[in-house]
Amino acid sequence: MAHCCTGSWRAPVYFTVSVILAFIAISTSMHSKTEQPSSPTKLNFHELSLNASKALRKAGFNVMATLLQVSPEIFLSSPNSTIFAIQDDAISNSSLPPWLLRNLLQYHTSPLNLPMKDLLKKPRGSCLPTLHRQKNIAITNIDFKETTVDINNVSVTHPDVFLAETISVHGVLEPFSSLDPEDVHQGWNSIQAPTCNAMSVLVSDAVKSTNMVEWSWIVRLLSSNGFVPFAIGLNSVLEEILKDYKGLNSVTIFAPPNLQSLTSPSPLLKRTVWFHILPQRLTYKELTALPAGTLLMTLVRDLSLEVAGTAGFKGGLIINGIEIVAPDIFTSKKFTVHGISRAFEVADQVAAIVSKWSETRITQVAHICKGCKQALGPKQVKGNSKTTPVLEVILIRTTLFKN
Prior knowledge:
Elements: H1 2-31, H2 40-58, H3 62-70, E1 81-86, H4 88-92, H5 98-107, E2 109-110, H6 116-121, E3 127-129, E4 136-143, E5 148-151, E6 154-163, E7 167-172, H7 181-185, E8 195-196, E9 202-204, H8 215-223, H9 228-244, E10 251-255, H10 266-274, E11 277-278, H11 284-288, E12 295-297, E13 304-310, E14 317-319, E15 322-331, E16 335-340, H12 346-358, H13 362-368, H14 372-376, H15 378-383, H16 387-400
Parallel strand pairs: 1-7, 10-16
Antiparallel strand pairs: 1-2, 3-4, 4-5, 5-6, 6-7, 8-9, 10-11, 12-13, 13-14, 14-15, 15-16
Protein name: FAS1 domain-containing protein
Keywords: Membrane, Transmembrane, Transmembrane helix
InterPro entries: FAS1_dom_sf (IPR036378), FAS1_domain (IPR000782), Fasciclin-like_AGP (IPR052806)
């Protein structure tokens, strides 16, 4: 009876995979270079894929074995490869379009040959390249006693399924990226990857917490849709956002077409970019429902944005004097991006603060600026007018760059 049941689920799975493979194989052959059938390179290529496929099938990875056998170009497009094979159930139970399945398979393939002994030598937090659009996977845990490795918090359950001079194949418990059906329907590449720095070290384990904001995805969306300066600015301060806002699970971003402070010192650039981000997700409909005068908290803790209503009958919503000209250009469950006509001016906020302070006596400033009395002495604090600008500058600088 068990044998009968096993065969019953395999038939529809293989039929589905065959249909998908037909599409993938055709698209792959259209972009691949033709070689002579008798060339040693091609013979070795197919022999390698066939042997790896047999090893996968023997280990119980039937779907991946079929995929590798029919379309080896997906996995073996680089001189060296490490394939992380996904369990049958994870693929057969998914309803991914062919293009996304191809992306997922390439995300599970690294252009490095890494047998288990080499994976164990990597430091925890090491990022590894994949064949998919420069997205990385990351080693999130290593247990030397049990000789186990977790990648993107997924266990490598079947190490060294197949080893050769240029290829290693391992089996993993589940896919390295959970795919959001809502994002897939919108036609986006919803494979979520951890964020790594220029030294290939893990900065944010975006896969571990599925409710985290997909920052790397946001940066790519901005870059490819006309918001390159802001994308560059966001990427440059991303590490600090991840450090200071570890529990952040949703954001609203107001993206300007240009960013003059891109060449400014890093504290000002950081403050400018953060001033365009709200630590909550607000769609355009939700923003327009807010009454005029509503203050919106930004990532800059001492500065807020103000809702001022719409600009005329057909105008967009005005935030801090700037019009939203492209509402909801990118949306997901965790973020919304609105295009604005130009960048918010942080200098305007500073001017407002200075104006408020100009009406404040030196004793009040000293009370706010902790330690100023001890530093300047009671006589200077009480009535020395020459000291007033000094204290105000101290307070301004403290406020501006404390974030």
